[in-house]
Amino acid sequence: MMEIQRHRLVLITPPFQGHLTPMLHLATVLHSKGFSITVAHAHFNSPDPSNHPNFCFLPLFYGLSDTHISSKNVVDITATLNTRCVSPIKEALIDQIEKANINHEKIACVIYDGLMYSIDSVARELKLPNIVLRTTSATNFLTYHTFLQRQSSGWLPLQDSMSLDLVPELEPLRFKDLPMFNSCDIQKQIAKTVAVRPSLGVICNTVNCLEEESLYRLHQVYKVSFFPIGPLHMIAEEDSSSSSFVEEDYSCIGWLKKQPKQSVLYVSLGSIASWEEKELTEVACGLANSKQKFLWVIRPGTISDVSEWLESLCKDVRVAIAERGCIVKWAPQGEVLADEAVGGFWSHCGWNSTLESLCEGVPMMCQPHFGDQRVNARLLSHVWKVGLEWSNVMERNEIEVAVRRLMVNSEGKEMRQKALKLKNEIKIAVKDGSSYDALNRLVKSILSMNL
Ligand code: UDX
Hints:
Blueprint: E1 6-12, H1 17-32, E2 36-42, E3 56-60, H2 66-70, H3 74-84, H4 86-102, E4 105-113, H5 119-125, E5 130-134, H6 138-155, H7 184-195, E6 201-204, H8 208-222, E7 226-228, H9 232-235, H10 251-257, E8 264-268, H11 277-290, E9 293-297, H12 306-312, H13 315-324, E10 325-328, H14 333-338, E11 342-347, H15 351-359, E12 364-366, H16 373-383, E13 387-388, H17 396-407, H18 410-432, H19 434-449
Parallel strand pairs: 1-2, 1-4, 2-3, 4-5, 5-6, 6-7, 8-9, 8-11, 9-10, 11-12, 12-13
This protein binds uridine-5'-diphosphate-xylopyranose (UDX).
């Protein structure tokens, strides 16, 4: 019999920007550790194979369409995805096992995104070692467990009057920060997510120095191994290729280079959240009145005609945008945050944006929209103290005041100092600290399952 030469990993990702990007970073890291890589993905919102010539890509029909995705109903999309992806993924895995045998390889492990909880039973049935990649914070995952544990002790139904109360086990989170607050559909999905028991454990895109206590508590309740090897974009530093679904507009980097140090507020709500036209107008007026410079991402589809909307703004605001602003459809966010001209980030607090900002020492103005974003915002403002909590009222005066608090006032300066300190701690964790150690532990675990 021929000796098995290589271990192949099959990574399975859903068609969302905030999930595909960390999965590709993980693939890059594990490839650098000697594994062969296959990335299974949806037939749309696909990665560009030419950016990763060393990987095999496997486009699959998950049973979702891009119009389904554009409905933005994340809960419904997740439920449909988990029902419809099972049989195509099972067939693809069986095929991969056969191909691996022919090529004297072995499928050493299936790594799937935490959103795709239904893969758990597929991997189990095919007797493949498996790992879940959690692309949100460990604290967010902990809220799922705490919620389920407490379901029987009087938490449900959550009353609106409790929304500002602190959750006893999860302070400083309030009930209203919980991602499942009063949504039965989300609660059902959370129960399914928590029921998953990956044989090799959970990879978390986080760092010990940010979430040590949550990681410790998760390990205690979940009783599988945890590998906090993040931030993945930093640990995969050799991977500078883009996985953006929308083409990045690099003209904004040229614009940033002409701006003074820490003078620009970067404004972006990631790939799903958005403001309505009325809110966009309040943002434009608030930014103009704050007298600060700003780089603003307005994604395609946010508004039917951006030029027409800009024309409809009053003259003073148009002049302010022309003099102090730069608007793009999609920015190379990593490079933007790394540019010394950027002094703050007005963000929806998606976990990737949060990590990217922390890694560059940029303080944030928090405006969570849904799901894990409220947890992240609370961590930013009340635990790491590098995020500004403000009224979140989409009214120009409120916006003006909040922007100035972050960019001009002493509280913004203090947050910037704290952010720089965290940046250094994260750097150390990645270079030869906790994330570096967790990665080595992960590689050993995968190999030891395949001896
Ligand atoms: C989603 C959820 O909303 C988020 O809460 C969860 O943590 C991950 O999945 P998304 O809303 O897109 O993600 O936010 P985020 O996690 O911040 O990811 C956005 C990604 O798009 C980041 O990696 C960011 O760098 C990138 N991006 C965003 C760009 O490259 N350019 C842009 O102009 C805007």
